[in-house]
Design goal:
Length: 163
């Protein structure tokens, strides 16, 4: 059993989210540069007043988590579906923006958005693993998880969702 080939249409939304996330990283880098100019701190120095240090940490933290975000979003888009992958991506970008802005103002303001961004990453990881499991079972064991879930749902008397 082989899965259907993926087309560019199947990746459109996740590509848009990827571009939005790249734009976000670029704006955070610009804000970091503006903070260097504001406090007259030349590269490669990483020392300065607390607002500068918070800005540099907010940007660095975003860069540290970015590979995890991109990998899980694209794998879940390819092996599961682009719409939930893109929605989780939008949630991550939203959380990261709030994290960045909050951290610059006050280090404690980053905690809630940080937790939201980690939740989005965890959700992306689960979706990636589920998509890979689904493909592996279908291709190598002939088990279709979607059909099995529908069969199980109907066997416990779940209402018809197609009506």
């Amino acid at each position: 059993v082989k899965m259907a080939a993926i087309t560019l249409d199947d990746l459109y939304f996740v590509a848009l989210v990827t571009i939005a996330s790249a734009w976000q990283l670029a704006t955070h880098a610009k804000r970091m540069g503006m903070s260097r100019m504001k406090f007259k701190i030349d590269p490669p120095s990483m020392e300065g007043p607390p607002e500068f240090l918070r800005t540099i940490r907010a940007q660095q933290n975003g860069l540290e988590f970015y590979p995890i975000f991109i990998v899980t979003m694209w794998i879940s888009a390819i092996f599961l579906h682009q719409v939930p992958a893109a929605l989780v991506g939008v949630l991550y970008i939203y959380a990261r923006q709030n994290y960045f802005n909050g951290y610059i103002k006050d280090a404690k303001s980053r905690v809630g958005p940080f937790k939201m961004s980690v939740m989005a990453l965890q959700l992306g990881l689960v979706m990636s693993l589920f998509g890979l499991l689904q493909m592996g079972l279908l291709n190598y064991a002939g088990v279709n998880l979607k059909m099995e879930a529908i069969r199980l749902y109907k066997s416990v008397g779940g209402p018809d969702l197609m009506s």
